[in-house]
């Protein structure tokens, strides 16, 4: 099975652009949803369940870890793949993120086609 839709959660417009560009080059059929912080992401997810979520850690309003906590509490059905995409190279951030059973990958920015291939493999 291939990814049909991805929610990109990142407060940086440049990172959003890079993600969307990379996703479109990888597979133009993938529907890209956007949120600029965890609160917006939760709002999107109340109306749509994408195949994958790409999530930054450091964001204002609600950061990636706060989002993961709320997502775990509020939603019984999770996206099949949640992948952290961050500039953080801290091992403690990776360990913390991977404690959630729905977080399947932890990638360093920028998003590259190999990250999407990994996510496709995890989905299929």
TrEMBL record:
<protein>
    <submittedName>
        <fullName>Response regulator</fullName>
    </submittedName>
</protein>
<dbReference type="InterPro" id="IPR011006">
    <property type="entry name" value="CheY-like_superfamily"/>
</dbReference>
<keyword id="KW-0804">Transcription</keyword>
<feature type="domain" description="Response regulatory">
    <location>
        <begin position="5"/>
        <end position="124"/>
    </location>
</feature>
<dbReference type="Pfam" id="PF00072">
    <property type="entry name" value="Response_reg"/>
</dbReference>
<dbReference type="InterPro" id="IPR001789">
    <property type="entry name" value="Sig_transdc_resp-reg_receiver"/>
</dbReference>
<feature type="modified residue" description="4-aspartylphosphate">
    <location>
        <position position="56"/>
    </location>
</feature>
<keyword id="KW-0597">Phosphoprotein</keyword>
<dbReference type="InterPro" id="IPR050595">
    <property type="entry name" value="Bact_response_regulator"/>
</dbReference>
<keyword id="KW-0805">Transcription regulation</keyword>
